[in-house]
Design a protein that fits this description.
The chain is α/β, with parallel strands linked by helices. The protein has a single domain, classed as Aldolase class I (TIM Barrel, Alpha-Beta Barrel). The chain is about 30% helix and about 20% strand. It has an eight-stranded parallel beta sheet with strand order 1-8-7-6-5-4-3-2. α2 packs parallel to α3 and α5 packs parallel to α6. It starts with a strand and ends with a helix. The structure holds D-xylitol-5-phosphate and zinc ion (ZN). D-xylitol-5-phosphate binds next to β2, β8 and α7. Zinc ion (ZN) binds next to β2. Its EC number is 5.1.3.1.
Length: about 220
């Protein structure tokens, strides 16, 4: 079962509530919320108050992707704001095991993200602690970037390792996902696809989400 997590980074920021309603009507499986701090990545987006304000618009899972240098300070505020799943970057977390426990203590699901150049070995010791691994297929910071093809082999190696260890961990991919790349990442083992520009840039959002979900 492939799930689609549209990223509201590509939404109209003046109408976020309406945009989320539209995503729900178009069949989105979850809402991907890209949190950027202007330090870990060169861009700024949403804080906990924005997420709390959006919570009333849908019951869909809020998938909060933290691209921030100090994730430990933001876990509780985002959980209180309504995050159902919180993803931290391995590159920002020297005490990754503790951070994942902290996320789970809030009642939220816990995930780790890896930048394109970060090796899988960074998450090897926490695969039993996570609900999901996010493999970035662009360098994070902006929507609309080009998919990095070397990520396909990385996805396949991680899926193989998860299967070998019989772990039910979701494998999410984020960045440059479209009609051309979706079949490739699904074949490599991803089961949750984040898509920003491919959903918001499409003439028909519902058709775009269905196309990504059924890509093979
Ligand atoms: C990149 C973000 C992505 C981004 C994806 O820093 O993490 O979630 O919104 O956008 P597209 O699908 O346009 O590459
Ligand atoms: Zn993201």
């Amino acid at each position: 079962m492939i799930r689609i997590a549209p990223s509201i980074l590509s939404a109209d920021f003046a109408q976020l509530g309406t945009e989320i309603k539209k995503l729900e009507a178009a069949g989105a499986d979850m809402i991907h919320i890209d949190v950027m701090d202007g330090h870990f990545v060169p861009n700024l987006t949403f804080g906990p108050p924005v997420v709390a304000a959006l919570r009333q618009f849908t019951a869909l899972t809020f998938d909060v992707h933290l691209m921030v240098n100090n994730p430990q300070d933001l876990i509780a505020p985002f959980a209180r704001a309504g995050a159902d799943l919180i993803t931290v970057h391995a590159e920002t977390a020297p005490h990754l095991n503790r951070l994942l426990q902290n996320i789970k203590e809030t009642g939220s699901k816990a995930a780790v993200a890896l930048n394109p150049a970060t090796p899988l070995s960074m998450v090897e010791e926490v695969l039993t602690e996570v609900d999901m691994i996010l493999v970035m297929s662009v360098n994070p910071g902006f929507g609309g970037q080009k998919f990095i093809p070397s990520v396909l082999d990385k996805l396949a190696r991680l899926r193989h390792e998860l299967d070998k260890r019989k772990l039910t961990v979701d494998l999410q991919v984020d960045g440059g996902i479209n009609a051309a790349t979706a079949p490739q990442v699904i074949a490599a083992g991803a089961n949750i696809l984040v898509a920003g520009s491919a959903v918001f840039g499409a003439p028909d959002m519902k058709a775009a989400i269905a196309m990504l979900r059924n890509a093979e």
